[in-house]
Here is the input.
Amino acid sequence: MVKAVLFTLSFFILSVSLYSDANDSAVLNGFEGEAKNAQRRISGLWHDVNNSNFKNGHLIVSQHGKQVFTAHYLEFKGIPFVEHGTGVRELDTITVNVQVTQQIPGWTTTGIHTLTLSADGQYLVGEYLSGGEKGPLKFKKAGK
Here is the structure.
């Protein structure tokens, strides 16, 4: 129980600290001083909308320059799952190496997520690669 509380507290502190330093410098139009294109923002909260087996799925994305940090919680058929990752952003695609901290039995504990921001900026869509398996990922932007 203590480990779970410490993990949750650490996760929250990390999320807040990463989000507070987040910026979208990678989406500047190439000229210093130009306004950021808020429509192309990746940093923030995203909801997992992959399929009906996934419930209560939330992805926090934080960007600092081209570097990206993620924290992801979901429930797969009622079983909780937690992972975090670091990666890079190139244009509208992020590639993140993830580490699972609360595993679903039978699932691997590391992987790579590749997600691309949709044209309207409302979805991150892509796939995971883990243990030789791959599959779809889809997140919808929450809030602004």
